[in-house]
Amino acid sequence: MTSCINADTPENWMAEGPVLLSYHQHIATLILNRPEASNGMNIALMRSLHEAVMRCHAVPRVRVVHLRGNGPNFCGGGDVREFASKGEGLGDFLREVTAYLQMSVGALIRLNSIVVAEVQGFAAGGGGLGLVCASDIVIAGKSAKFLAGATRVGMAPDGGASVILPRLVGFRRAADIVLSNRIVAADEALAIGLVTRLTEDANLADEARNSVLRFASSAPRATAAAKRLLWTGLGISVESCLPEEARTVAELSATADAREGLAAVLEKRAPLFTGT
Predict the structure, then answer these.
(1) Residues 82-121, buried b or exposed e (16+ Cβ, 10 A)?
(2) What's the rounded Cα separation, in Å, for the pair 62 and 145?
(3) Half-sphere exposure in the Cβ direction for 44 (13 Å, CA)
(4) What DSSP string describes 68-79?
(5) pLDDT of the residue at 130
(6) Of 3, 5, 59, whose CA–CA distance to 28 is shortest?
(7) What is the pLDDT of residues 34-93, one digit of tens each?
């Protein structure tokens, strides 16, 4: 006899660790779970994130992935303390880190499921801004803030942001955001097309949940096809650009400037870059 899994039965797929994943009524809820570190992406979180996204790929019942972060921030980017601890071995370490992040971003884009990101606080770096860029729908609180962050620590954008961001907001705006490392407030993010919709912070969870529920009732084959066409319509294969992004990040992370940038963040001072 063929077994039948009831879509109404809640299931815990990843119940503990730096990423949580649960399923209920065609919805996979994927939670970044390092609130004490602003959900900063250390190697453990990145491995778990990739595992979670691939689990969603493996279950056709998943129509929507609800992506969010525990605590006051969606994701603060890479874990600066872990990165700084690697010293001159940072370049080799970041080859692995970047690989997991980029595999996760590529897998999110390829999902048949609609990815709805719920963003509070900061979405920074390749982890935060990259995941926002790779999501299909982004619901943000009015106090949310977006930051590229890479060049301030002597590195380059990753997580697909260097490819997707210009196609979302235009080249000139993307260049300003990436090169200046200025904070983009929620109202500007809405105006330039980085986010889909804003809501009062107090209503963010409800607004995101309502959006997720609406998508979960959509025709799954139609929405999967529409999503594929929309991403294809960006005019470039995002994944074809990721290897160059990864190579650049690893190369820059082996420089003295990258170590200085990380140290400056930890010591809460301005960096002194020398170009070495």
Answers:
(1) bbbebeeebbebbbebbbbbbbbbbbbbebbbbbbbbbbb
(2) 29
(3) 11
(4) EESSS-SB--B-
(5) 93
(6) 59
(7) 999 999 999 999 999 999 999 999 999 999 999 999 999 999 998 888 888 888 888 788
pLDDT one-digit tens code per residue, 170-203: 999 999 999 999 999 999 999 999 999 999 999 9
Name the pTM for this structure.
0.90
Query: What single letter denotes the amino acid at residue 19?
Result: V
Neighbour tally for 13: CB within 10 Å: 16
pLDDT above 90: percentage of residues in the chain: 64
Contact (CB, 8 A) for 258 and 88: no
Q: What does the block give as tokens for 234?
A: 């960006």
pLDDT of residue 154: 84
Residue type, 140: A
Contact 210, 81 (CB under 8 A): no
> CA-CA distance, 52 to 13, in Å (whole number)?
8
